[in-house]
Design brief:
268 residues, three-stranded parallel beta sheet, Rossmann fold, 2 domains, alpha/beta, 6 strands, 11% strand
Length: 268
Amino acid sequence: MTYEKKVESAIRLIQSVGKKEPVIVAYSGGKDSDVLRTLCQYAGVDYKLVYNSTTIDPPGTISHCQHVGAAIIRPAHTFFELIAKKGLPSLSRRFCCRELKEKFIAPRLLLGVRAAESVKRQKLYTEPTSCFVYNSKCSTDRILPLYNWSDDDVHKFVVEERVFVHPLYYDSDGKFHVERRLGCLGCPLQGDRGKADFLQYPKLLRQWCRSYTHYVSTHKYIEGIYEDILWHIFYSNHGNQKYQQAFHGLFDKPNAKDLLESYFNIDL
């Protein structure tokens, strides 16, 4: 399908959804959400942008959401309060996503999700609609006008239509970078387990440690606060075997606190 056909198809889908009632957009503050916001304007429908704050949003995200008129939903508990209560999030313990992002907003939602964003999404999203089930009594029909858009399509639309997007997508020369992704700072689902974010915002790591200290103090299990943080950031993607080889056989076990402080240049 050509770029022009994708734009036309997305607009028609939005118009079909907004015939009888206002369109609710699950707004993320990212480039795809702003493309979707602009397409809603082109479709001529009444729409409302709703943003679920995670409390670890990239700098400028809240102000960007306010600028475009998005309603901001604040969570009952911050991300760090969740760590203090539940421990460290992981690929298999995504309680932060569940409690901060995947909250019921409306029975029908427009999302700027694209299959091209990842291999997993290519398998999940092969149609412009899907259903997300929260529990046995609650679900949401998700409409995905951009599901078949490529990065090149998004880049072309943002540049040609002069879409207002988050400042973090631009470099110092004002060049738009479609490959950049904005998400929760320090997210364990990132390929580097959040290391780049912790290097850029070392105080973020300090808050992780403080919150996790509270969790450890209220639970019998303890490997060691800094040891757990070290495992979480550097080794959890590689499995326990590599961790055991590195610290309990082939090499001397390092002081986890010293290693974290040295790597991220911060006093913990």
